[in-house]
Queue: 2 jobs
Job 1
Amino acid sequence: MNLFRSEEHVRRWPLYFQAADDYVMPVSDWAEVFGSSMFRNRLDEDYLAQSQRHLDHYHEALLGKGRAIPSPDRVLLTVMFTDIVDSTSQAALLGDQAWRSVLQQHNEMTVTHIEHFGGTAVKQTGDGFMSSFASPTRAIRSGAAIRDAAKELGLQVRVGIHSGECEVLGDDLAGIAVHIAARVAATAGPDTVVVTEPVVAAVTGSGIDFADQGTHNLKGVPGTWRLHTAIL
Amino acid sequence: MESLAVRWLFPGQEIVVDSRCLDCGESVSVRLRDDELIDVTPESAVGYMPSPFSRSRAGSGAFN
């Protein structure tokens, strides 16, 4: 938060960006908002466990000042899901200890290839990862690199990629675009990188070729989706 | 942590936030102790929080 001598000073500040959910309030009101448990209880041992309650308290404080709850931030991103094919039987075949070792190598390798291509490993999802990229081309190349490196570990992975607006919730992502990417990954066969039509359109000129996989119904996602396998 | 929330790190103590108006560079001062707002100089001072908040934290986490 930035302090100004008056509201008039905010309005004439060159970087002031007026939007429906921007907040300009007297310091006394902000002092009350920053008195909510979200800030007051920051040092509590169970702060994270109570984070939703604290967030609710913060929103109540804002509403009490006649302000709207901040809307989730939406940004255009490319979301990639990777997943190990047939991990359960692989684990059974190798035994717990050996599987743990392979899994650890897989995880380190995956994060390395995500970050190498400028992506962010958002979170681990079972035996795979959800990651985000600013560039769909980089996401595809990252997915292909993970696929190739997984083969060297004796693993097969499936990769699904979709570009769309996501809600940014701290370091996590949410929204229909995330669900679409996850569903696309679920349709992918072993050692394939499957993408949606918006991804194909966005990477025109990148030199990446695609094989049309026809239209699909993605569970829980409205409409039908034309999917493509990246050839590289 | 936001400057107006720093007081929670120092319970029972008076906290003084000395800042500068981003428009004119003149002083803005806030004194607090726990729940009590002791003084704001000038009285007309306001706080401005851009929202969505990512506009002030570009490059973090999932944005890369």
Job 2
Amino acid sequence: MSYLEFLGQYGPRFFDGTIITILQTILAAILAIALAFTAGLMRMSRNKAVSGVSMVYIEIFRGTSLLVQLYWIFFVLPLFGITLEKFTAGFVAVGMNLGAYGAELVRGAILSVPKGQWEAAQALNMSPAKRMIRIILPQALIIMLPPWGNLMIELLKGTALVSLIAVADLMFQAKQINGLTFQSAEAFGTALIIYYILARFILTPGMRWLERFMARKMGKA
Amino acid sequence: MFDWRWSFVWEILPKMLIATGNTLMAAGIGYAIAVVLGLVLALAQRTPIKPLTFVMRELVEFIRSTPLVLQIFFVFYVGPQFGIRLSPWTAGMIAIGLHYAAYLSEVYRGGLDSVPKGQWEAATALNLSMAHTYRRIIIPQALPPSLAGMGNYLVGIFKDTPMLSVIGVAELMHTANAIGSESYRFLEPYTMVGVIFLLISLPTAALIRNFESWVRQKLGMSK
């Protein structure tokens, strides 16, 4: 079977898998961003309990593997009475894992906003919340966007693991097709190329665009 | 509700510890491959041969932007199609070593780029050979800025070893899966895997930070 015939026959399955991978990536990214900002800001709190909770979350999810977390959420959490459907368990695990890494980016970026900005905001009698939202966060956002780009690629790659709890993503379809045809080079090679296209020609340019857009918004371009 | 059984924990502990040894071995071998191969990938991008530079650059980008677990499957299953049978260990080590070599080559590249141009010119003026320049002048200066990245990826490769379980390398995750499907108890084995990972990766990360500042001090660099 030539490669074109192979694509003709299994193309639709690769397509379905790609859609699921994209969905998992988007949902996990939303969760990761929400968790990163929550945990990142909590980590900076002066309240020991608040920053402690955030620290435990960050250290646990950064200190263990995504695969371990995924299996734990999918197989062990039901024993505690929380049963997640596999699709949900997949993006929740990926989102929680990358959210912990993102929290460190958020914290680092906020800390690297020049001290004068904090003092100026205080001198203008801004409330701490207003200072954070209007002055600090927008500047921190510009600083943290480039590393977030790398994190998003890690996130996309991370979603490949959800295939191991039988979510029918791109990786899962590649495995199935490999099992049906034994054309491993074609099956896994095609999937590799699709992941590469998603990362290099969609995700990376998208993040670059966002960086430029934000810089323009901030009047820094 | 769940019930945590300590007796079961003690029962499976020996198996889990052996598996921990395998995990550490996998991470160690994979990292050794990555450290050497990464340097090759980084230096290959610095040759005057433009096509080689381009191919290496794209290869590194390709490896970095595709999932490791898929690469592991690829290496393991594609070999037999062309008559090369690889054991799970061999295939796993090639895949994970190559994956992290791509990451480390970027770390080295950053380190090499950070060496001021004057150092190269001075070495040329002193008539040092290329090999000598790299070994005695450039690499010692490129190393300290690379150390943080190298350390991060050492912890990273350790945390990625569970992916080797998909092709049957008997590391921690694989062992936990086997115990789980044998006994229908997943709570203890999976939790133990998590705890073992935490117990190893957190102190390692701290050690690496100390080592980094120690090297900087040794080389007379400020923090």
